[in-house]
Amino acid sequence: MEMQQLLSMGFPDELAAQALAATGGKSTIEATEWIFNHKATSSNHVSNSNPPPVQPKLDRFFNFQSKLSSAVTASSQACQQEEQEDADLDLEESAPNVNPSSKRLKLSPSNTKPASPVFLNHFRGHKSANNVSNAKSHEPLYERMRPRTIDDVIGQDHLVASNSLLRSAIECGRLPSIIFWGPPGTGKTSIAKAIVNSATSSQKQQCPSYRFVSLSAVTSGVKDVRDAVDEARKLRVKCKQRTVLFVDEVHRFNKSQQDSFLPVIEDGSIVFVGATTENPSFHLITPLLSRCRVLTLNPLKPHHVVMILKGAVNNLDKGLVQSIGFQVDVVEDVISFIANNCDGDARVALNALEIAAVTAAARSQDDKKSKDVKETEDMDGLMSQKNRVGPSYNIVTLDDAKEALQCKHLAYDKAGEEHYNLISALHKSMRGSDANAAIYWLARMLEGGEEPLYIARRLIRFASEDIGLADPSALNQAVSCYQACHFLGMPECNVILAQCVAYLALAPKSIAVYRAIEAAQKVVKESIGQNEGVPLHLRNAPSKLMEELGYAKGYIYTPDNPTLAQNYLPPSLNGYMFLDWPDKNTSDGQKSSKQCWQLS
């Protein structure tokens, strides 16, 4: 299409092909301007006495272009006037009588110089739309928005407060070895880099006081650690520079790999900083924990996430504009929705914002293409395309945010700490007879992908431990639940688990059997009964010799003599009651005062 237009203007085939190749082949006007500038440059080396060639079609085209340029200038002024009105509208939006949901976050401040119209840049050949798109950054938004220093960190106030351990270490210029433990997206890596930058900027030396080296336990091994330590020792001797070795996902190192950090932490070769999402008590060796300070990071609060998102929208150097290459508006509801549905994960929030902005930009580009007209049509047609005259402010809507965020991520790990946290919550909710809470925690486990038979086994244990003799049928319910889950599987067995959980939560509770077996085991372990043999009257006498030795002598057959008392415990334990339950031989149901937990 562009090639045919250039040929129809009277340009040679070779020159037209060169122009399209130089300008990317997207615009006839850019190619024509390139030819014009190229011919003007070439004419400096040719005698001015030669008359220019006669090109009627080209002359007619540039006559039209000169008329169009004056119209473009007028339209540019109109665009600037329109942007000034938008700026005034932003000031009005801060008034109290304006609906908050209609407010927008402007990507650039109101005093920022307006960008040139898109189609105007084609004629000027300066900062065209192609140049803008090439300026986009391929680095993720969450990576670009990492805090530079500890003063830029948002959230985790218990770690970055004025009198915190990190602040004191930075002021003294002596960072300790640290392990950051917290959920993903809470700032472990960001804080590690920020404290190093802050400590380095606070020291005025010829060489920086700290050097940051980052490794990941997913892709690195002991050799990488050894190389980093060797380099750290050389720099420490050469210019008194210390190295902060940051190891992400440190829990993925095995025991022997973790042991490799111990000597270099002790001799001060490195300052060790580790980051983990798993409980250090379960996944890190004790010697490493004793040499490091474990600092816990909490999920970010919604208002913290709002501050981070607004910073990404308004930051022209590293923010959202670098992801899509041009200006964008973000509705206030978008920020609030993402902040309340990211589970305190700043990385998830920034990713959702970036994807929503890209979606809005793509929708806007599609709208432009559907309304686009030929670039060489008359001036009235061009002026009617208002979206082509001024800069386009793409609006990120709530629907874009919902599409970007999709479903809410469930924090659950079948082999990690969250697995045990949720089963504990389920167990304790049933123990407290709160069926609503119990069903909620059951749903969290099922949606997280927990094996239903594991839950059913825990319900069987609960039926005896917490209900026991208060409702003996509870055990039958739990066993039947396990069998039904085995037959059906997920997702059909979810209602069976819910029925059993509700039954156990609402059933009467008794821990008498649970305490009885624990007390009896304690007696056996402590040898209170002195490992006494079974009393002779309780032994069987299958042979004549055993009868002569007194086996079974004095045993009272209870069905024939129901009223006669008989001792069944060893002599040293006579009178002890392990089961705290009403005595069937007492008329008033009074319990014995001698209870099992009184044993010492």
Describe the structure.
- There is one protein chain.
- The chain is α/β, with parallel strands linked by helices and 600 residues long.
- The protein has 4 domains: 2-99, no CATH class; 156-296, Rossmann fold, CATH 3.40.50.300; 302-405, Helicase, Ruva Protein, domain 3 (Orthogonal Bundle), CATH 1.10.8; 417-510, Zinc Finger, Delta Prime, domain 3, CATH 1.20.272.10.
- Helices cover 53% and strands 6% of the residues.
- The chain is built from 29 helices and 8 strands.
- The strands form 2 sheets. It has a 5-stranded parallel β-sheet, with helices on both faces.
- α16 (302-314) crosses α18 (332-340).
- Residues 44-54, 60-75, 86-102, 106-134, 373-392 and 585-600 have low confidence and may be disordered.
What's the short story on this structure?
The chain has 600 residues and is an alpha/beta fold. The chain is 53% helix and 6% strand.
The CATH level-2 architecture of the largest domain is identified as 3-Layer(aba) Sandwich
The poorly predicted ranges are 44-54, 60-75, 86-102, 106-134, 373-392, 585-600
Query: Roughly what percent helix?
Result: 40-55%
Largest sheet: 5 strands, parallel
- Write down the CATH topology of the largest domain: Rossmann fold
Instruction: Tell me the count of domains.
Output: 4
CATH class of the largest domain equals: Alpha Beta
> Radius of gyration over alpha carbons?
39 Å
Q: Which sequence of strands runs across the widest sheet?
A: 3-4-5-2-6
Give the rounded overall mean pLDDT.
76
Query: Can you count the beta strands?
Result: 8
Number of discrete helical segments: 29
Anisotropy-based shape = elongated
